[in-house]
Amino acid sequence: MEDALVIYGGNTLRGDVTLSGAKNVSLKIMIAALMFENEVILENVPRIVDVMELIDLIKALGGYAEFIDKNTLKIDGRTLKEKTVDLLYGSKIRVSFMLFAPLLYRFGSCSVPNPGGCRIGARPIDRIVDGMMAIGIDVHYHSETGYYDANLRSPVKGSFTFTKASHTATELLILLSLMATEPIRINNAALEPEIDELISFLNASNAKITREGTTIVIKPGQKLVATAPFTIIADRNEAVTYATMALTTKGDVRIHGINRKHMEYFDRKIGEVGGGIAYEGTTTRYFYKGILKASKIETAPHPGFMTDWQPNWAVLMTQAEGTSMIIERVFENRFAYVEELRKLGAVIDFVKAPVPNPVEYFFFNFDPNKAYNQAIRLEGPKHLHGGALHINDLRAGASLAVAALTAEGESVIIGSTILARGYENFIEKVRGIGGEIREGEV
Fold this sequence. Notes:
The chain has 15 helices and 24 strands. With 442 residues, the protein is of the alpha/beta class. It folds into 2 domains: 2-20 and 234-441, Alpha-beta prism (UDP-n-acetylglucosamine1-carboxyvinyl-transferase, Chain); 23-231, UDP-n-acetylglucosamine1-carboxyvinyl-transferase, Chain (Alpha-beta prism), CATH 3.65.10.10. The chain is globular.
């Protein structure tokens, strides 16, 4: 079975990378499209495993979803027939939880299993359920089956304030609020640009949604009708991966299609540690210009330093001079890659980072009775060597590939299908900038 990458590291990576469409925009907009009264055309959709899994799930429910061109997807939710999401499909992909919206819209009731996806910590499902209940949707969990049953109370109305902002929960509440009979207000909503893309998509199709900071208001509108194809923005997580490759290998890579506003925090930190950055329109050049400096990073929701970026940052800091620290505030199990990087010669230790009020400081549901490893200390620069590695989650997988490309010698990374969940044409793109990488059999 081909489920491994073989990488020969040590090359200086140079060249150009064109970003694919954003995974976290594509998946949510594909689900939103199932609520439309006509077919929807989406452009720049990446052909990644998560997208293909969602296409299969939509078809299993009776909907239509097909690529009609290389990265152009047609979706039609008017043919949906099933209102129960199959456990096997639901376990493969976390975004399946958002199917509550189109299924409730079409049928008034539905059953959705606990979501799958990467195991990087307990997801805030309780915040999602609380929000659903607040606007008039009954939700019951059945522990013996692992399913949530939902029923639409009439009418959908009310408001909800998140105690801690949640990206996916904000998006789901927006979609559910489209069925309301009066304006619904979502307070302390997440600020991620991917959410704003969802809002733009819906507003272009008759929705009436406004945002002022962390407050989003959804007004009753007409039924959703697509009038033109919608183009998915470039993936900022992919951008960070290739930017890190450039700097750790002392290279020079131009990344095309990037929205600089979505990268402001990352770019500022790159500048602070001594990395080179140059802008030209929607192209950003990341290049090595001298010894990198150590740093301290704390992850946070947008506009802070994304939790998805920190595994790549850890690899970067193995090449920086001095002692660096990363504190993970968003998820409680995001350091699964640490032991893997140690195999390559990285010097990383778990440390305690005392905070005055951890319940408020951390964005996950902090339990004072549990022990957490939320901070690491890295020493650099370290000469990395090849090794045999295992991918535990998507972003960790990307960081291991970056480390292997930085290291001298051969590395084998097992679990490449996990990487394919979020990266389109990864091998081809890495080869295009001078990386030696191929598929391997395990």
